[in-house]
Every structure is written in C-alpha cells, then in structure tokens.
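Record 1 of the preview.
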Amino acid sequence: MRFLIIAFTIIITFSACSSLSKVQKSNDYEYKYRMAEQYYAKKNYNYAQQLYEELFPIFKGTPRFEDMYYKSAYSAFYLKDYQNAENLFKGFVEVYPTSPKAEEMDYMRAYTFYKQSPKTELDQTNTYKAMGLMQTFINTHPRSERSKEAMEIVDKCRQKLEEKEYLSAFLYYNMGQYKAASVAFTTLINDFPDSQKSDEYKLFSIKSFYEYAVLSIATKQEERFEKVLTECNEFSDRFPESKIIKEVEKYSTLAQNNIKAIKNEQVKKAS
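->
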C-alpha cells in the first residue's frame, strides 16, 4: 500500500512538472499568462512564480505588470523564500509608489524580516531590521489599519531583544564573571527602561556588584561595597513597591556589615 502511494505521488509530480514544461516551451504569452494566473489561484505558487518571472520582460510597462509583480512577490512569500519576497515587496514600492497596494507592500517588506527573526539565542540582525522597518511603517502610515499589528510586532521584537540581552547577562552571572554581569545588567536596564522586569534586572545588578566586591582585593573592597549600597538605594527610590525589595535590603545590610568590618580592621592595623 505504501509503495502504491509513493508511486502515485511520483506519477502526479512528474505529470505536473511535465505540464509546466509544456507551458514554458510555448511561445503563446497569453496562454502562459492564463496558466500563471491559474497556478496562482490554485496556490501552486512555485509554478506561478516561475511563469510570472518569465513573463516580466514581455509585460513590463503594460497594465498587467503591476498585478503580476504583486502576485510574484506573494508567491515568494508563500513559498517562504523571504529574502526574494523582501526584494520583490521593496521593488514594488519603488516601481509603483502611488499604487493603492504600495502601503500593503511596504508592510509586507517589513513583515518578511519578522518572519526571518530567529530563535532568541541566535544573531538578531533580522529582528532589528523588522523592528526598524515596522516603526518606519508606523511613522509613514499613521492611519493605516495595519499600524496596530505593526506596533504589536515591534513589541514582540523588543521583547525578544530584551530576552537575548538578559540571557547574555545571566550567563555572565552564572559563570562567575560578576564585573561583566553587573555591566550587562545595568546596560539591560538602560536599554529597556520600561520593562516589567526592571526591578529583577536591578536586583541581579546588585547581586553582581556584591559578589564582585566580595572577590575583590582588600584595597578595593570598601569602594565596591559602597557601590552596592548606592545600587540598593537606587532600587528603593525607583521600585519602592517591588515585591523583591526585602532581598535588596538584605544585600544593603550585608554591604554595610562588610564596610564596618573593613573599617574596624583598618582601625586595628592603625593602632
């Protein structure tokens, strides 16, 4: 039974390829155009796009070309060929800037970068591009029905970038690279000041500064425990209602106790 299914699939595929080949060999451009439209309507985007591309030089400058360009761009998009789709969406806007479809194409260009946005752990170049182009779309089309969705995508991109930056900072912390962790968490707070997790990031910054102070040479410890106190005070000022303020107070007390111990030791040595 399985063999029959495979054989039937091969026959169907070969038949379809043979059919496309016959269309491509034809010199009747009207026939080719009709077949491209049929393939597109049946969601056979691979064949439709091949025919549209062959017909571009023939119909360029005619009333049909705009619609062909539009459908070719979407064919690439539906085939998940996002790089080609991005070029086509961009090209459409450049060729037809006053078209009623230009706004849609402008949005879709940005959306292709969003579709190429990878997992959080990987390079986020496409995420930055998606966020930037979506923001540009919002600015240039403030009354568009797509502006709300564009804003949602900008927020999702920002959340992904925030998560990536957090994972990087947390990795430094877990590896015991506390100086790097303190810098990374501080940068994270500055980059995403409106984050709902800002108080958590600040706590990790405090922890990192504290651990860095503990591991420092004796002559640097007092100064670095003072830095911990400064960070704790900043936390209290910024997040007075935070649920984790008790833990911050704990680190404040630890830092004060260490400073007292250091000063007592200095007094002993002086006497």
